[in-house]
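USER: Please consider what follows.
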Amino acid sequence: MKELVQKLSEQISNVETRSRNRTAEEYERFLHSIEVILTDIWLGKFIDNDYECRINRNVNWYSQNQRYRDPKITARQHLAVFEGFLSLGLIQITKEGYLDRDKNKGELTKYQARNELLDMLSEIEGNPFIHIKPNVDAESIFLRHKVNGETKLKEYVDDFKTNEMRNKLIKINKCLIRHWCDIDILDTQYVELQKQLLMDEEKQPIDFSKRILHRIFVNGSFEQGGRFFRGWWQNVPKDYRKHISIDRKPTCEFDYSQLNPNMIYKLESKDIGETDAYDRVFEGNHRDVVKKAFNAMIQSETPLIQKPKDINIDELDMSWKDLKEAIITAHKSIEHVFFKGKGNHLQFIDSNIAEGVMLQFVDKNIPILPIHDSFIMHHGYGYLGELEEAMRRSYYDIFKSDIGIKEEICSEIKVDKTTLNGNVEWDNIEFDHLLNADNDRSLWRDRNDEWDKYKQSK
């Protein structure tokens, strides 16, 4: 990569029409921007052949929110590099970016590499997923707020609280990058999944280099939101999560039972009772719809006259208004909490619970993957009850009471005394699958082999 960066720096400089040479500092930034753009393209081709890279061409953007920016990137040098790549015919713009200030909408410019640049990148040995090491020292505590209806990053002054959160997150992230988490599916399934995620406006395709977490707060407050985001596994659809592996081993996922209702009732000093908080509406029928509606009613600051788009009530023989009233009737003792915008504060509490769960393991160099209020770990920690115990302990530390834990998803591989290739314990797997395992899962195998080589080299 370093050699390619140097080669391209000379080519770009030759096609530029600059009146003066770059200073030493400008030249270092220039080289850094070449490497950043090359790295994005290199990663993109490993993600999917149709992957489009993005760049912000708004000069003002590069001077905003310095806390969250790469300090080596400046608008002048970064955009000069991008224009240089275009002039050399190494990339092509696939969709021009735009900004509609009246509608608070916009998109970044999308681009792809041409074959000549792809051929250059193909000469780089290794897999970018493994060899691009996440920067655990970059800002990981994000604070967002809304300005004229648009969500923006907000600058803040560090204090004991933010420094403590950041230090804990650095500890968690350092543990994550010492291990390799992957998804053990057939090659054809992997390609299909990436295509599916590329088409989903609310998801990102799997990028295994995204191996660390960021904590994101909202509404300009460090007591609103605070959940952990940006781990690649959080983009994996639920049906695929049972195939996530950690250091080649199968995993399990455990989830809190009725976390939001339990927290609300405890905060309001009310007894939640023995009946499931969602099943008590319609006697357990349409539970998923009730759960979504309940949480939307907690999140919203207004009475929600219109039904949220992601809630489908077609299967219910009633209106949205009737559904709201049914939920309020079933939870009469906390009806004053609905439509008060409590959701983001509840997220802050459940993010503290999640932090507590993770810290119990990372001090022992044991990786754990959070998905808000559920956790994925090596299957042994689920079967032996250690994950469940850690989750109960973290909840108890805050609320001084117990809560139900359920096994959400677990790998289809069951443990017995049979071992395949000394790696993973298998059971009830058809013989044909074992014969074709390496061929059908070559992408998963190659990534894990590359990780093993990388670890040995370190």
